[in-house]
Write a structure and sequence with these properties.
Helices cover about 40% and strands about 20% of the residues. The chain is of the alpha/beta class and about 290 residues long. The strands form three sheets. Strands 2-1-3-12-4-13 form a six-stranded mixed beta sheet, with helices on both faces. The chain has a five-stranded mixed beta sheet with strand order 9-6-10-5-11. Strand 1 (about 45-55), helix 2 (about 55-70) and strand 2 form a beta-alpha-beta unit. Helix 2 packs across helix 8 (about 255-265). The N and C termini lie far apart (about 85 Å).
Amino acid sequence: MNIKKIAALILTLALVFSLAACGSKTPSTETDIPATGEPENENVENVTLKVAATPVPHAEILAVAKEILAEQGITLEIIEFTDYVQPCMVTENGEVDANYFAHLPYIDGFNAENGTHLVSVAAIHYEPLGLYAGKTASIEELADGAKIAVPNDGSNEARALLLLEANGLITLKEGAGFTATKLDIVENPKNLEIVEMEAAQLPRTLADVDMAVVNGNYALEAGLSIADALATEAVESESAQTYANIVVVKEGNEENAAVKALCEALQSEQVKSFIEEKYEGAVVALF
């Protein structure tokens, strides 16, 4: 066989193998695309969804949603935290798929301070802040120089100060609004001492201060009834919308099918009924 014939034979064999390889690729490619044309993450069966939450009321509400999701083949794993920092960090680093414990002003502030990329995907409920009696039983009995404890994180401190202002105890600088701090107090007729404190500690300090403004979730955990509060934020107020408790994911995960299913479950009539019966006004559904 001469050199020209050998070269022709090699080219022929190369062409045959090339066509065979292309032909074998087609079935594999087709099986990678769902027959319906839907994205693969639309199939949520046998999916485990991890959500970070504070124990009360968020983990309790999630437990109701868990039953709903189980019917769709989604296993909801609820991971509880007792602070406001770790739920954000584990959502940012991907240890969990979402968190449910905070409102948007807190999340926005956390992003700004920590360079995180957390976004809201659904508003679920609102927890009115309450002013609870400590050493002093009523607002009228507050003495000159009385101590009132408030949350020390920016968004909740502003809410607490606005609640004190609404009840005639202080006056804030005009326009301070939801960014107010105790430095914005321009009138303080009783010379109240505003004690800033980590939110989770507020119920425990009632024996040491005259009054405390307590976040709804921590009030519930401590067995405080909203009915016993000396003053509360109005449910129809701007605060109710601004400080709605939300489901949060890391930016880019907003379209996750299991997260969408979670939001739908949390906004169901079953969850709404649970909230109304369980919390009697201390938690208010916003859907």
